[in-house]
């Protein structure tokens, strides 16, 4: 419970910029104890869009809010706050089966453009799985940059897990081939593969990921397959666009959203999940090993609207 509470505190403090952005207008709307009218709805809608919840998502939330207010015969704006939190949380709930891969023999492909915290996220997840008693292996299949291989090697040492790597410029599918066979031979529970994410060259990236997936299907058909895309929370709508583009090239099963502690755009979590239908599975709010945690919709929304 201590770990959960510790992360809750980090989440609350990490979302302070988002909260300030929302609170600036929303709290005065809720606590003015005035009547619910069209002006209230318009101002609330504007605030949610400014927190990067996206127009499409905000429209859906506002529509539900209007219906519930009417159904419950609410008249005071102060009655709406809890209702809004519940409606947003419902938009984002992540199914428990979303984390099945943690308990099955799995190959987890992690994709994302440079600088979003991809390699760091693999390092943190590897360390956490190792601490839970899982046998973890990581593969340095982002062979495009020597720095990516070095960084993953550092994280593997820190997490005390084995790494399979070749030199810069190697064929990523060949690295995955070695890693998959090593995972089977060493009876690893989870194999994390760090892959490149060069969206500016989508055709090449698509072909590369296709080759990697063919190798996994052929060599390790019985493994559970997971594809996680890492996005930088500070980039707001740009992160949503990246998720959309990656989803066009491969079948994404979940999202890791990093750097939420540095952004006023925390609402992007809600937009991504509701507009793309891809669950945000982990959120990151700092540099430490345990600063990446499973996403809890209710905790997240409450932290977003938390009272000091």
Key terms:
308 residues, alpha/beta, 8-stranded mixed β-sheet, 53% helix, 14% strand, elongated
Helicity range: 40-55%
Shape: elongated
Q: Topology as H/E string?
A: HHHHHEHEHEHEHEHEHEEH
Q: Which class best fits the helix and strand makeup?
A: alpha/beta
What is the average per-residue confidence, as pLDDT, rounded to a whole number?
86
* Secondary structure tally: strands: 8
**Could you name the ranges where pLDDT drops below 50 across 5 or more consecutive residues?**
none
Major sheet, described briefly? 8 strands, mixed
β-sheet strand percentage: 5-15%
Trace the largest sheet across and list its strands.
3-2-4-1-5-6-7-8
Continuous helix count: 12
Topology, please?
Layout: H1 2-14, H2 16-31, H3 38-50, H4 55-71, H5 80-92, E1 106-111, H6 118-131, E2 136-141, H7 146-159, E3 162-164, H8 172-185, E4 190-195, H9 202-219, E5 224-232, H10 237-249, E6 254-258, H11 268-276, E7 280-284, E8 292-294, H12 297-304
Parallel strand pairs: 1-4, 1-5, 2-3, 2-4, 5-6, 6-7
Antiparallel strand pairs: 7-8
Task: Give a description of the structure.
The protein is α/β, with parallel strands linked by helices and 308 residues long. The chain contains 12 helices and 8 strands. An 8-stranded mixed β-sheet has the order 3-2-4-1-5-6-7-8, sandwiched between helices. Helix 2 (16-31) runs antiparallel to helix 3, helix 4 (55-71) packs across helix 5 and helix 5 packs across helix 12 (297-304). The longest helix is centred in the C-terminal third of the chain and has 18 residues, at 202-219. It is elongated, with a radius of gyration of 21 Å. The two termini are 22 Å apart. The mean pLDDT is 86.
């Amino acid at each position: 419970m201590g770990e959960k509470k510790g992360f809750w505190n980090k989440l609350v403090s990490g979302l302070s910029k988002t909260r300030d952005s929302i609170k600036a207008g929303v709290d005065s709307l809720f606590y003015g104890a005035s009547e619910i009218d069209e002006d209230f709805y318009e101002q609330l809608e504007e605030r949610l869009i400014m927190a990067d919840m996206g127009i499409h998502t905000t429209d859906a939330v506002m529509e539900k809010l209007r219906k519930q207010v009417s159904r419950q015969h609410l008249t005071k704006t102060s009655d709406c706050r809890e209702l809004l939190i519940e409606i947003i949380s419902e938009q984002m709930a992540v199914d428990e089966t979303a984390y099945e891969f943690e308990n099955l023999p799995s190959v987890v492909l992690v994709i994302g453009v440079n600088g979003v915290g991809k390699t760091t996220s693999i390092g943190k997840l590897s360390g956490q799985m190792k601490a839970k008693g899982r046998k973890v292996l990581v593969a340095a299949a982002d062979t495009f940059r020597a720095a990516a291989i070095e960084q993953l090697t550092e994280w593997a040492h820190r997490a005390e897990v084995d790494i399979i790597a070749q030199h810069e410029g190697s064929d990523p599918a060949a690295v995955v081939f070695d890693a998959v066979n090593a995972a089977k031979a060493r009876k690893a529970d989870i194999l994390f593969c760090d892959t490149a994410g060069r969206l500016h060259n989508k055709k090449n990236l698509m072909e590369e990921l296709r080759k990697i997936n063919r190798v996994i299907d052929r060599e390790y058909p019985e493994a559970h397959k997971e594809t996680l895309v890492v996005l930088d929370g500070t980039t707001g709508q740009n992160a949503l666009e990246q998720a959309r583009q990656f989803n066009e090239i491969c079948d994404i099963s979940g999202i890791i959203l990093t750097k939420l502690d540095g952004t006023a755009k925390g609402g992007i979590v809600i937009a991504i999940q509701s507009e793309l239908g891809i669950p945000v599975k982990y959120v990151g709010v700092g540099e430490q090993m345990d600063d990446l945690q499973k996403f809890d919709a209710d905790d997240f929304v409450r932290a977003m609207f938390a009272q000091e």
